[in-house]
Amino acid sequence: MTATPDLAPAVTAASPELLRSVFRRHAAGVAVITAAGNRPVGFTATSLTSVAAEPPLISFGVGTSSSSWPVLSEADHVGVHILGEHQEDLAATFARSGADRFGPSTEWSSGPEGVPLLAHVSAWLVCRVVSRVPAGDHRIVIAEAVAGSHSGPGRPLVHHQGRFTALRD
């Protein structure tokens, strides 16, 4: 029988701050989600998850107060971009509120279904949105992959302790 650690001294009541603090300790891959509307929109996401292989489903969370949400709330398709360790600046641009995300410093083009596709990413998917599930102040978007590529350069970009970093060997 193994002893259980005494957790009492470290117990904190659940709160948004506790959740953020706990998840800063969780290393996550970095993705950018894009969609087309009257204007292209996008945001940096660390909540990307593979849901099922058959059919090929993914999910991600998006805040309903996000500047991207009005377009994402109606988009039929989204772009999912897996960033490489060489794309820290791109991740920061898409994470920054008020940034010109599709300005001159961002290389992109219109892809399948009119979805904005970012250049030089490690991998990308175009996905058809199948569901938007309410989850507190967010929505969980579930989408089915319809096209993609996994032949881009670089090792993955990772988010940990509130900053972007690369994997170590």
Describe the overall structure.
With 169 residues, this protein is mostly beta strands. It has a single domain, classed as Electron Transport, Fmn-binding Protein, Chain A (Pnp Oxidase, Chain A, Roll), CATH 2.30.110. It contains 3 helices and 12 strands; from the N terminus they run H-E-E-E-E-E-H-E-H-E-E-E-E-E-E. It has helices at residues 16-24, 69-72, 88-95, and strands spanning 28-29, 31-36, 40-45, 49-52, 57-63, 77-82, 108-110, 116-118, 123-135, 138-149, 157-160, 163-166. The protein is globular. It comes from Streptomyces violaceoruber. This is Flavin reductase. Keywords: Oxidoreductase. GO terms for molecular function: FMN binding; riboflavin reductase (NADPH) activity.
Give the mean pLDDT. 92
Order of helices and strands: HEEEEEHEHEEEEEE
Q: Describe the biggest sheet?
A: 7 strands, antiparallel
Q: Which bin fits the share of residues in helices? A: 10-25%
- The largest beta-sheet arranges its strands as 3-2-6-9-10-5-4
Oligomeric grouping of the chains: single chain
Structural category is: mainly beta
Instruction: Provide a count of the helices.
Output: 3
Q: Categorize the overall geometry.
A: globular
The parts where pLDDT drops under 50 for at least 5 residues are none
Count of separate structural domains: 1
CATH architecture: Roll
Share of β-strand residues: 35-45%
Q: Look up the CATH topology.
A: Pnp Oxidase, Chain A
Protein name: Flavin reductase
InterPro entries: Flavin_Rdtase-like_dom (IPR002563), NADH-dep_flavin_reductase (IPR050268), Split_barrel_FMN-bd (IPR012349)
Domain Flavin reductase like: 23-166
Keywords: Oxidoreductase
